[in-house]
Amino acid sequence: MNALVVAVGIGIAFGFALERAGLGDARKLAGQFYGTDFTVLKVMFSAIVTAMLGAYWLGRLGVVDLSQVYVPETWFLPQLAGGAIFGAGFVLAGLCPGTSCVAAATGRGDGALVMLGMFAGVLGSGLAFDAFRGFYESTARGALTLPQLLGVPYGVVVCAVVVMALLAFTIAEKLEARA
Amino acid sequence: MKHATPYADPYVAGVGLGLVLLAAFVLTGRGLGASGAFASSAAGLIAAVAPSHANAYFARYLGGDGPWREWLLFELAGVVLGGFLSAYLAGRLRLGITRGPRIAPAPRLAAAFAGGAFMGLGAVLARGCTSGLALTGGALLAAGSWLFIAAAFAAGYLVAPLVKRAWR
Which ipTM score applies to this complex? Predict the structure, then answer.
């Protein structure tokens, strides 16, 4: 099948799931950072755990060759700084790049403005690329995974992430009940 | 007017989202994404109107089939369609501006634009956003993805008190 048809299909399912979860609503997302609404954490970590367990078991059972799946590369300092700047922008916007598209598609003007801002930010950063290229290309580690970094078996890290997520869910439920 | 139905349980929606991500791994050998589509269209715009500025950053999107046939651009078009479809079926389509109780529409839109611009810079530096780096790499246990998640959440909680007026 045409790869771009598959791309649209996966995108539709992605956008559908985000909207169902309520992640097209900026106030809901912002609530994450004020302790009133933990939807972001719950959706994000149940999605990560589901896909992580799926990939792990499909790989183990030989259904999927995980070496053929593209693993995002690690660049320590640029991703630390980029993550911090991204997080600051996220609170201000109340939406991330993907959810801003959902917000805009469902009629929210703020979603459209986040999309425009995102475009301007990428365009401006791209134009100024030579100014920070040295930093951008620093601390490259390739397709480094946590099991490799920590020297711990894949399955052990998978278990640890599940436990961590369950713990985070329990705390989130307690905090939400109090808010 | 049809009454809006409540949102799905976050855990159920999260598992659904995880299955979409898993399907992307199996069917395409890659995960989801969003910021790459913005980068690709920015590269396309630069190549069309100011090709002398098509530097090394934009160049990576200008090879192959070109910036307008980028996989992520089609995927993100799907996100727009899927979001619309879901909201339509649930009776949640509504024109308006989502904002906190103490902020007027114009400053809310300005904050939305500024926040988007910050995320643009952050996504360029980190080589991805919540979708392509956090979700996708998180599920594949990529070290940089977990670093990005930790940094983004930490910065979010640090900045939240400063922009409280926008939301609370």
Answer: 0.97
